Every structure is written in structure tokens, then in C-alpha cells.
Amino acid sequence: MNNARPQAVIFDVNETLTDMEPLRVRFEDVGLPGHLMDTWFASVLRDGFAITAAGGFAEFAQIAKDVLRALSLDDKAVGHVLSGFAELRVHPDVPEGMRMLRAAGLRLFTMTNGAAAMTEGILGREGLLDLVEARLDVSGPRVWKPAPAAYDYAVGRAGVSPGQAALVAVHPWDIDGAQRAGLVGAYLDRRGTAYPSVMSAPQVSAPDLRALANLWVSVSRP
Question: For the whole model, what pTM was predicted?
């Protein structure tokens, strides 16, 4: 396990920083079972990855709308579900973990397949916005993570080499993609699920962001 302290910490946003569970209620509000939220989110990622693999690009919001419409929702219902993103909160471990990392001198960034504006709104409500140097999204490189160019874009904006940056995520595909691009992969295993054997094992793993911060804060500066 690589516990070396990175210079820049780049956070995935959806599910890594934000708790998406409240969206289940939105699905129920429009007459769908709450468990369909997982299938919908996985389908959005699938389509975003597929378009990137084919050499194209589409924004998260447009794909998210199309997948909801495929569930026979009208525009009003689609809007109700997606408006829930603006009300999401971060996981309980996130505020303390981010503050610990920033106090220890690490530089913090976000990089999302969603929208940077949404990230800014959520971090602003949580009082965490000033901790993050830049809120980035895939509209910059016009490719979705885990394409290498998405990580190259993030480390370029941070002004560091890939090996000086860590990508923090709860998604194995994001960890695998980051590590293939030369970053340190820091996996938050909040659910205690088995990590896929077909993906590169995370170089760093912790049960939550507080634990990860404790790990890096205890390491001397490079």
C-alpha cells in the first residue's frame, strides 16, 4: 500500500463526497420504486462512458434526463428528480476529513463527471467551498472519467505531475482509471464491498475520509 502523502488531492463528487440516498425519495415521489435510483445512476454512467469510448461527449445532465425519460417520466417528473441534486448533503465524514487534509497543507480539488456548478453549490452550503482550490468537471477535457484525458486535465489544472496527485473515490472504476493515468488511487470503502479483481487494486484504502486524512496527516511531508 502506498501511504505517501500526495501534494494534491482530487475528489470525485457523486457518492464520494455527496450522499445520494435522498434521491430515492424523489423517485418514489414520481411513482417509481426507490431502488431504481441505483439502476438509473448506473445507466447514466454507462452511457457517458460509452459516448466517451466512441469519441463523443455529452453532459451528465442531458444523459440523466434521457435515461429518466426512458422510464416513461414526463419533463415535470424528470425535473423533480434531478432538482434533488441541488439539495444533496455530503457524507458525515467529509467535512472533518477535508478540513484535516487542508490544515495539513494538502491542496484540494474536485473532478466530477457531473457539473462543477453543482459541486460549488453543495460545498458552499456545507461551508467547505473555501477549502477547495478548483472545482473541475469533464466539460473541460470533454471526456468522462475514467478516460486518461480526464485525469490529465485535473492534474494539469493542479499544476502537479500525476504521481504527486491522489484521486479519492468510492468507485473502483475511478480508482482503476486514475491509477492507469499515473495518479495514486485512494479508495473509500464505506460499504465494505468486495473490490473487483479485474481492476487494479487501490494503492490506498480507508473506510471513510476521516480515516484517510488520518493516514496522510501522520505521514511526513515529501
Answer: 0.96
